[in-house]
Amino acid sequence: MGGGSGDGGDGVKTVAAMVLFQVVFAGLNIFYKLAVSDGMDLRVLIAYRYLFATAFLAPLAYFMERSKRTKLTWRVLVLSFMCGLIGGSLAQNLYLAGMQLTSTTFASATTNLVPAVTFVLALAFRHERLAIHHPSGQAKLAGTLLGVGGAMLLTFYKGPDITPWNSHVNLAAALAGTSPHHPAAAPNFAVGSLLCVSSCFFAALWLIVQAELTKEYRFHYTSTALMCGMTTLQSAALALCFGTRDAAQWRQGLAGVRLLAVAYSGVLASGVMLVVLAWCVRRRGPLFVSVFSPLMLLVVAVLSSLLLGERLHLGTALGAVVIVVGLYAVLWGKGHEKAPTDQVVAKVAADEPPNGKEEDSRIEMPIAANSI
Questions:
Q1: Helix axes 189-216, 220-242, angle to 10 degrees
Q2: How confident is the model at residue 361 (pLDDT cuts 50, 70, 90)?
Q3: Taking Cα atoms as reference points, which of 97, 75, 74, 77 lies closest to residue 85?
Q4: How far, in Å, CA of 229 to CA of 273, rounded?
Q5: Cα(344)–Cα(139) distance, integer angstroms
Q6: Which residues, including other chains, have CB under 8 Å from residue 10's CB and lie 6 or more apart?
Q7: Membrane-crossing residues (predicted)?
Q8: pLDDT category, 343, cuts 50, 70, 90?
Q9: Number of CB atoms found within 10 A of residue 248's CB
Q10: pLDDT computed for residue 336 by the predictor
């Protein structure tokens, strides 16, 4: 009786934690939009985000893993560099650039493509088998095709305005009006959608490389702190070489809404929420964590229409629904694929440790494209 009550309480806590996680990342999208509207350079924003994340995670990694952490090798450092480059510098810069040309709701909707893209890449890297004659393989293939169809619907069909309320608040426009030297980029849904989908590609590729890093170095906080540190250096180099060398951009990045954006994204999103996510994965598994991903899209759609003056159009809503259906099809396929495999692994545990199956679940976990 007591154990059942404890399990129920733990279930409520993990659900609440994942709802909080998605709400925080929805807020991250709003802060991203506000910082960009204020004229903050994209590369400077990413560099500061991961600087704050590194400052938070490095002490956490030191104290939580110092007694069991093994020595770093060159292979671990190279994999950390690649994870930072692919999942941080490239994916994040593309995501922000895509958001700047479209909308927060549109960009958030495309992040649900990550599991479908990951499945395709996992096939290419031989981490997955298609298993087209098995229901799980058919579901993952159908989910991937639905994701592609939803992305095309988002891009090429706008439709009528279906926003259920009228809000006269537009924080992004107010900030843009105070930054005359940094005019807002004109909307371009074709280019913006290409950038957002490219971001999903690199986020999926990051999950593949991150699985290799996890296999090589099983200290989650340390490896994540390394990735964030690498991304900080890479983004700073990109900003200095290909973006802006204006010292004012770097000074202003630590003031006003820009400081709020980098502190929120670095400390709360990439720092505190990483701990929450790791706890939920340990308690309930990666598949449980995955099913909450569309909640962020819903919260972003509400907040962006209330605070940013964005309008919700039928094409965006339909495309998002199709992508989410595709997401759940992929998750259903993954869930039904694992069950019989886990039983076989349990029978031969003495001869074959189950590490490979843990790696597969990591690869398939569709964390939002901006969540590291």
A1: 140
A2: very low
A3: 77
A4: 17
A5: 22
A6: 283
A7: 12-32, 44-64, 76-94, 106-125, 189-209, 221-245, 257-280, 287-308, 314-333
A8: very low
A9: 9
A10: 81
DSSP structure string for 116-148: HHHHHHHHHTTSS---TTSHHHHHHHHHHHHHH
CA of 3: how far to CAs of 7, 8, 10, 221, 273, in Å? 6, 9, 10, 30, 28
Counting every residue written for the chain, the total comes to: 372
Which burial class, exposed, middle or buried, applies to 177 when counting CB atoms under 10 A from its CB (0-12, 13-18, 19+)?
exposed
Of the pLDDT bands very low, low, confident and very high (cuts 50, 70, 90), residue 81 is very high
- Among the ranges given (150-164, 236-250, 253-267, 300-314), the one the predictor scored with the smallest mean pLDDT: 236-250
Cα–Cα nearest to 68, from 219, 223, 257, 255: 219
DSSP secondary structure letter of residue 341 = H
Give the predicted TM-score (pTM) of the model. 0.81
From the list 211, 360, 310, 261, the residue with the least C-alpha distance to 49 is 261
| DSSP symbols for 319-330 | HHHHHHHHHHHH
Q: What is the largest CA-CA distance in the chain?
A: 67
Mean pLDDT across the chain, nearest whole number?
A: 81
**In Å, how far are 140, 225, 266 from 55, measured between CA atoms?**
39, 8, 9
CA–CA distance, 140 with 152 (Å, rounded to integer): 19
Q: Which has more confidence, 289 or 272?
A: 272
CA 357 to chain centre: 22
Residue 161, φ and ψ in degrees, nearest 5: -75, 125
Q: Which of 76-85, 232-241, 276-285 has the highest mean pLDDT?
A: 76-85
Residues 6+ apart with CB under 8 A from 118: 204, 207, 208, 363, 364, 366
Residue among 18, 119, 156 nearest 327 (CA): 119
CB of 127 closer than 8 Å to CB of 363: yes
